[in-house]
Amino acid sequence: MNILDILYAQHGISSVGVCEFDTLKNYMSKSAIEKAYNYCENAHSVYVALFPYFNGYQKGNLSIYAMGKDYHTVIYDILTPISEQIERKTNEKSIVLVDNSPLNEVQAARLAGVGKIGENGLIFDKTYGSFVFIGTILTSLPFEQMPAILSDNTHIIPPSKDSKIIDCLHCNLCKKHCLGHAIGKNGKINCENCISDLTQSKKDLTKEQSDLLLKHNLIWGCDTCQLVCPQNKNILLTENQSFNQNLITSLSLEDIENLTRKQFNEKYKDRAFTWRGTKPLIRNLTLKG
Ligand code: B12
Questions:
Q1: Is the separation of the CB atoms in 2 and 146 below 8 Å?
Q2: Given the DSSP bridges, would you call strands 132-139 and 94-97 parallel, antiparallel or unpaired?
Q3: Which residues, in sequence order, are bridge partners of residue 135?
Q4: Which of 195, 217, 235, 243: disulfide with 222, CB 3.0–4.6 Å?
Q5: Mean pLDDT across the chain, nearest whole number?
Q6: Dihedrals φ, ψ of 172, to 5°?
Q7: Torsion of CA 57, 60, 63, 64, to 10 degrees
Q8: Residue 229 CB less than 6 A away from ligand 1
Q9: Is the overall model pTM greater than 0.85, yes or no?
């Protein structure tokens, strides 16, 4: 089996592909390219895997992406053994990168052929819509070579392949429903008005930004441009237990206001909403009264 087959067979992954780092560089700034080379000298290929996370329409005040276990950890744990095997068996450098990464992950996914970009700037998977996280392995292993390595992988549960292609309808409902009118041409996001960004920002908010948050139902993240999308209507739910079990759907002031940073991190270990501390959460909860 080659790396793509192995990746494809991992539980919790819906689509996999590979793109050339040289091509991806066209979508990255000079400093991002430099950072990527610091991670992986002679970077050659980017393996891309999509991880579905839609858990149904759960009521709460946290965004769907933050209800389950922290996706950074989940994806890192799944991809690391594969990355380590690449290094062991080929002597090439290899590193797992998720989200906090110099790579333009959405473009990497598009170039790897695992999905298409919608007007909301997000990648859409055939079966799971845009509710997919992107995980990557950046490696010096040449793109042309997919040697038969990694054959000692075990836990193999192939995902279903019979699915329809999801293509953006360009209906622009995502743009129309975005309260901050933050989605521009070609999915370019204006972070000054993007509610997802504002809820997660530690910065002081302007009066206009606070008013925007007051109109919004969540205190962390935003799902609007995904939930209104017709192409997300009949998607499958995630089967990944990290994203469909032990969900935290809401937080209240009482839950967090008296916690130190350390206590907060311990209480909500492995949750994506902890990375900015309690400050933005308390600000957002207080604002909404
Ligand atoms: C910074 C960041 C944010 C910021 C800014 C978002 C932005 N798009 O600028 C904020 C906090 C607002 C944010 C919000 C969200 N994010 Co975010 N974010 C990132 C991060 C770390 C970098 C994004 C970035 O700056 N890209 C580079 C810039 C330079 O891209 P760009 O020039 O704007 O180009 C984009 C578009 O123009 C488009 N594009 C270019 N050419 C063309 C041509 C056509 C025809 C079209 C249609 C589009 C198009 O493609 C580019 C990529 O999106 C990525 C992870 C990563 N390392 O890539 C995650 C990432 C994009 N985020 C992700 C998620 C899940 C979210 C949220 C859904 C979370 C939430 N529920 O609140 C929202 C969605 C908001 C939205 N519609 O984008 C996922 C997206 C997965 C997916 N299915 O695509 C990523 C990939 C993280 C991951 N590993 O899974 N995010």
A1: yes
A2: antiparallel
A3: 49
A4: 195
A5: 91
A6: 65, 15
A7: -30
A8: no
A9: yes
pLDDT band at 146 (very low <50, low <70, confident <90, very high): low
CA 99 to centroid of ligand 1, rounded, Å: 9
Rounded to an integer, what distance in angstroms lies between the CA atom of residue 223 and that of residue 173? 13
Question: Is residue 31 within 6 Å of ligand 1 at its C-beta?
Answer: no
* Tokens found for residue 271: 């949750």
List the residue whose alpha carbon is closest to atom 12 of ligand 1. 197
Q: Which residue is it, tokens 């209480």?
A: 267
Nearest-CA residue for atom 19 of ligand 1: 99
79-126 tens-digit pLDDT: 999 999 889 888 899 999 999 999 999 999 999 988 999 999 999 998
CA angle 245, 199, 197 (to 5 degrees): 100
List pLDDT tens digits, range 177-203.
999 999 999 899 999 999 999 999 999
Sequence spans of domains, the chain: 1-289
